[in-house]
Amino acid sequence: xxxxxxxxxxxxxxxxxxxxxxxxxxxxxxxxxxxxxxxxxxxxxxxxxxxxxxxxxxxxxxxxxxxxxxxxxxxxxxxxxxxxxxxxxxxxxxxxxxxxxxxxxxxxxxxxxxxxxxxxxxxxxxxxxxxxxxxxxxxxxxxxxxxxxxxxxxxxxxxxxxxxxxxxxxxxxxxxxxxxxxxxxxxxxxxxxxxxxxxxxxxxxxxxxxxxxxxxxxxxxxxxxxxxx
Amino acid sequence: xxxxxxxxxxxxxxxxxxxxxxxxxxxxxxxxxxxxxxxxxxxxxxxxxxxxxxxxxxxxxxxxxxxxxxxxxxxxxxxxxxxxxxxxxxxxxxxxxxxxxxxxxxxxxxxxxxxxxxxxxxxxxxxxxxxxxxxxxxxxxxxxxxxxxxxxxxxxxxxxxxxxxxxxxxxxxxxxxxxxxxxxxxxxxxxxxxxxxxxxxxxxxxxxxxxxxxxxxxxxxxxxxxxxx
Lengths: 229, 229
Hints:
Two copies of one chain form a homodimer.
Chain A: E1 33-36, E2 41-46, E3 51-56, E4 63-69, H1 79-86, E5 96-98, E6 104-111, H2 126-131, H3 141-151, E7 163-165, E8 188-194, E9 198-204, E10 222-227
């Protein structure tokens, strides 16, 4: 029997992400606004103290957001460990997101949106679109993560549960979840401070079947900027 | 600067788990009731179709529960992916828990308890006890996972978010979580069917500071049994 071996670093297909590195090693030009084209992802190498701002031009676009320690990528931002640290599944301004070794990685500094984000849902991937009856390749956040890291010379050590910025997943009293549209406004932004050296990866989620990117189900672009503190 | 490199397979200390393998390769004697001593963990190698029953003798003991595909351990049960599949953070009888590649791994067949379990909180680890101001070594579920796999000749490829059986983490309407005592009764049990070949790891959580193992904060033993279907 041939058995598919799961390799966290290996994309199931490809899109423009693989050719969209912001620089060969992912280091940013400070103060430059980088666009993340709809359905793609980008990685950026941040130094401790840097400020990372993520912009939501349309207001209805979800950003799958990951952070890996640089150069020790097997230590990465963990939603499950952050839930313990924050005693909440809804991070808010003032909170520190932690790694799978409980290291504080990012401080949540600013949020112009109503503060509705998701920390319980996995990044979409090709099997998810298979489950949604898509045939052929479909852009997906998991492959965008893999390609964004590959594009700067790195490999995904795992597919961590992402911090899904602006993703609106109401959880009811019995634990049930819904796929709801973002409640952000056009040009809302969030700002984080890197507390250690990090590689941050962002994917403009290409989900165009459920309404998580708005009731129009049209994925749109995001943007980000890194500033020295 | 010396920098600690995070290695998911490397325990931060040791306890009896390392000497408690049920057999050299983790294969069970079908129908045998294995005890998981308080504060320790054990791994068992299951074949597709096997039934795994976990018993809660005290009724107030949490079981951190993981599943890894055998022999492809980098594919493992994922709470984040299961949330998507189940549209819920509270798995219940009839549900199928899935892997980080969306493969159904386990079917939840039976639950004699009130059905309150946790899927959002990370396994405890030595850094968690440091955060709780414990000095020196403290038994922890993450090390139990690492040692239980090591004891049967395997290595943890990551520290997945566990399915925390009987752990009672109420989530309020704003996403806030609480550390509550289990609501199970003595001798409650849950039963799963392995849908593929798996290594299942269970840890009798040694948390003795928060009340998640009961208001008496005294960790107790668990037991399990594997039966051919």
